[in-house]
């Protein structure tokens, strides 16, 4: 631990502190791990742009059972290769407690997705292992429900929890996939010491809206950001419309440095 409330994650490149008293930490990468070349290339590009963590789904919670479900265990091996190639820490989602041990072998932070925010048996299990946990807000979860979900992890013995806002269900889905609730920034700060992450990619669903919301999140005091980046968004197997190209991500990182406390 660093200062009270920080989450300190060890990565191949050294410890990364996530919290109020540290520069903004950026997690970047594709929605899904598609093949070795794309994940290693993305890792190198986002690392060069200044990201601290590589994200990428191996097990994907898709609305339709006929949509791409992720490459599973083989994608974990590709994440390990990208970790070796870049030195970046890895963040990937666990959907089923049966996969937790093998995910935790590769992941530096284990993600619990929006759809599992109140999967209490899964929360107890990620709480009983020692990798830090990224807990995304359920798509219709109140702040109280979200904090109580985090409490399950803390109560099971794991104090390293990061809260990630990823947009809430909205009545108007014509122009944005979700409503990114940036008001959680001051609200959570007043209620908890846990570090806060904002995910404007899932929060808006549109790549063209991501930079403005990333900057707003930094201005609002976020501790970290999650940004989806894909080498060829038009060909992505999931979430292409909200994914930045590596070039656009590189530009965004420079824009974020101007706003404030970034990287
Ligand atoms: C993700 O991060 O890839 C994801 C599925 O996000 P969420 O759980 O917020 O929908
Ligand atoms: Mn996604």
UniProtKB/TrEMBL annotation:
Q: Does the keyword Nucleotidyltransferase apply?
A: no
- Write the record's keywords in alphabetical order, separated by commas: Transferase
Question: In the Enzyme Commission scheme, what number(s) does this protein have?
Answer: 2.5.1.54
Name the enzyme group at the top EC level.
transferase
Where on the tree of life does the source sit, at the highest rank?
Answer: Bacteria
Keyword Transmembrane helix attributed: no
GO terms, molecular function: 3-deoxy-7-phosphoheptulonate synthase activity
Q: Which residues form the DAHP synthetase I/KDSA domain?
A: 14-257
Which protein are we looking at?
A: 3-deoxy-7-phosphoheptulonate synthase
Native organism: Trichocoleus desertorum GB2-A4
């Amino acid at each position: 631990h660093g200062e009270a409330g920080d989450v300190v994650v060890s990565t191949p490149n050294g410890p990364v502190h996530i919290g109020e008293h540290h520069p903004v930490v950026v997690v970047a990468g594709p929605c899904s791990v598609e093949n070795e070349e794309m994940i290693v290339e993305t890792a190198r590009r986002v690392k060069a742009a200044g990201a601290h963590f590589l994200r990428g789904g191996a097990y994907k919670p898709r609305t339709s059972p006929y949509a791409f479900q992720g490459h599973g265990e083989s994608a974990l091996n590709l994440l390990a290769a990208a970790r070796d190639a870049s030195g970046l820490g890895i963040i990937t989602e666990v959907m089923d407690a049966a996969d937790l041990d093998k995910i935790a072998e590769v992941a530096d932070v284990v993600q619990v997705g929006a759809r599992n925010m109140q999967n209490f048996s899964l929360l107890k299990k990620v709480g009983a292992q020692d990798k830090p946990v990224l807990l995304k807000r359920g798509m219709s979860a109140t702040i109280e429900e979200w904090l109580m979900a985090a409490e399950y992890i803390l109560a099971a013995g794991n104090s390293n929890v990061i809260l990630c806002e990823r947009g809430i269900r909205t009545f108007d889905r014509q122009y944005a996939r979700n409503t990114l609730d940036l008001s959680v920034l001051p609200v959570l700060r007043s209620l908890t010491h846990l570090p806060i992450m904002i995910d404007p990619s899932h929060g808006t669903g549109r790549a063209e809206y991501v930079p403005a919301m990333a900057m707003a999140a930094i201005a609002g005091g976020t501790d970290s950001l999650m940004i989806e980046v894909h080498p060829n968004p038009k060909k992505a197997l999931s979430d292409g419309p909200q994914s930045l190209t590596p070039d656009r991500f590189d530009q965004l990182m420079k824009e974020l440095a101007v706003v404030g406390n970034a990287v």
